[in-house]
Amino acid sequence: MIASGVIVAGVATPILGLAWYASKGSGDLWPHLIGSILPRALQTTVLLLLGVGAIVSTVGVGTAWLVASYRFPGRKLFEWALLLPLAVPTYIIAYAYLDVMHPVGPVQSGIRSILGITDPRGLWFPEIRSLGGAIFLLGFVLYPYVYLPARALFMMQSPSMVEVARTLGSSRARVFRRVALPLARPAIAVGTSLALMEALNDIGASEFLGVRTLTVAIYTTWVTRSSIEGASQIALVMLVMVLLLVTLERRGRVRQRFVGRAARQRVAVAQPLGRGAGIGASIACALPILIGFVVPASYLLDHAVRRLAAHGIPDALPGWILNTVSAAAGATMVAVVAGLVVGYTARFARHPATPFLVRLTSLGYAVPGTVLAAGMLMPFAGLDNLIADGWRTVTGDRIGLVLSQTGIVLIIGYVIRFLAVSTGGIEAGLTKIPPSLDMAARSLGSRPARTVATVHIPLLRPAIAAASLLVFVDCMKELPLTLLLRPFNFETLSTTVYAEAARGTYEDGAIAALMIVVAGLVPVVLLARTSFREGPKASRRPRIDPIEAVAPAV
Fold it and tell me: Which stretch of DSSP H or E encloses residue 541?
């Protein structure tokens, strides 16, 4: 219980630091923010979230219903391939499409060639560097957050309800609208909230596409204008938006709890579609994969091969990989240990405050990376100065800012940000260990520590492995925290992609971007293997679903 309290205090510290820095701002700062920055940034952010929410819910729910309820060409492929956009970070898809959709890029050049137009400006084309372009791209990257839980709930629904509705004369569209969709609202609410949290956290895609969201405003106010106080005040406004988003998600699920029968239900059989409808369903499922994964991945592969053929492997690539892997691995080890502490607190502690403490550990996942970084600066800068002053007093030497320059602050930021992923996965594994095993171990004289080491940990290995993998890849892809908390001259794969895109040298960043996408494919494969097993063997085999790792975050 004490250890979990310490972890919760560490997670809550950035919020307190944020409030402290915001209170240090001068009196005329708020009027400037309210008059010049916040209205536009707030309006842009709200429009972005509304647009992304509409796309992810429409695409995610529509494709989930198709693959769960009907048979059509390519259904088995689309079932797992619809998860592939999860492997592409938002800033990388913007990085790729900026070049693909450029007036001299392959898309517009190909269309002009077909139409016989030679002037690069002779063809009107939608501007990708716009709010609409950001909504479109983010929506087609983040829809799997809705697709996965919605598909699971559609598969769990009793087929008898659908069959009864059909026998009463309801069309397929009416059955979906009046029966299946209301029952899936809790999963849709959770998935949409997760997608919106990711859109709110985005900084790379929004900045590349010229969209001035609250996240971009925090970054530019802090880095460009050197005003941490102003950035903290904007971050407080953004934190209020996050809390509002979480509240709306909770209210959206109120009175939407449905309980199925405890007895084993008959599995729903997917209904075949006619030739025309089947082709339409295949196209509807193929388009999100094409837009969200195939186009950016093909672009990165092509440019990476060109870069390698022309200039070979970048000399700095081993350093980027080493920095990325070392920071992500360090954060993963700490996050897994902390997740075990919190998970066992939730399992064994009987204190009334335990559920509240466990819930607070997920706070970091709900807070955007820019907000978290701004809040971490004050407490850790103070601790850094305290260590430096103490060392100089004792030895007379200057050691500088140890925590910041060694990357410890960055690792702690990763842990706070993704602790919910680790805790959720480990808690999901612990729920599958029956309490009778604990009782049997106690009756044989085993102490709690030995029970954990010899009984629980071997059974938890799949959960720990899944949680570790998800945390590691999330740390590799994280951009806002890395940009703001990294040591000087510390380049990772994500910051390299950001820097190259900012300079417009897309080919030079293609190799780093491709490596991030390849790393992101690993958890997607894990999700596909654990989420889509079918048949009697799979139903008897205990398994850990990694999607449970992110559900507690909201």
Answer: none
> Residue 19 in contact with residue 425, Cβ under 8 Å?
no
In the structure, what pLDDT confidence band is assigned to residue 531 with cuts at 50, 70 and 90? low
In this prediction the pTM is 0.80
Contact 320, 493 (CB under 8 A): yes
How do the residues of the chain divide into helix, strand and coil, expressed in percent and rounded to 5? 75, 0, 20
Per-residue H/E/C for 439-492: HHHHHCCCCHHHHHHHHHHHHHHHHHHHHHHHHHHHHHHCCHHHHHHCCCCCCC
Cα 229 from Cα 222, distance rounded (Å): 8
Query: Could you give the CA distance from residue 376 to residue 228 in angstroms, rounded to a whole number?
Result: 11
Which amino acid, residue 20? Answer: W
Average pLDDT, the chain: 79
Check residue 398 and give its pLDDT.
75
CA 152 from centroid of its chain's CA atoms:
19
Distance CA 296, CA 96 (A): 5
* Cα gap 464→426, rounded to integer Å: 6
Q: Which CATH architecture has domain 2-257+277-553?
A: Orthogonal Bundle (1.10)
For residue 99, the tally of other CB atoms under 10 A from its CB is 20
Instruction: Give me the amino acid identity at 505.
Output: T
Structure tokens belonging to residue 457: 């940990």
Written as six digits, the tokens of 84 are 């592939």
Structure tokens at 157: 């629904």
Tell the burial category of 431 from Cβ atoms under 10 Å away from its Cβ (0-12, 13-18, 19+): middle
Of the candidates 212, 188, 214, the one whose C-alpha atom is nearest the C-alpha of residue 200 is: 214
**pLDDT tens, residue by residue, 211-233:** 988 888 888 887 777 777 777 87
Report the distance separating Cα 78 and Cα 299, nearest Å.
21
CA–CA distance, 367 with 419 (Å, rounded to integer): 12
Q: Quote the tokens at residue 433.
A: 């260990």
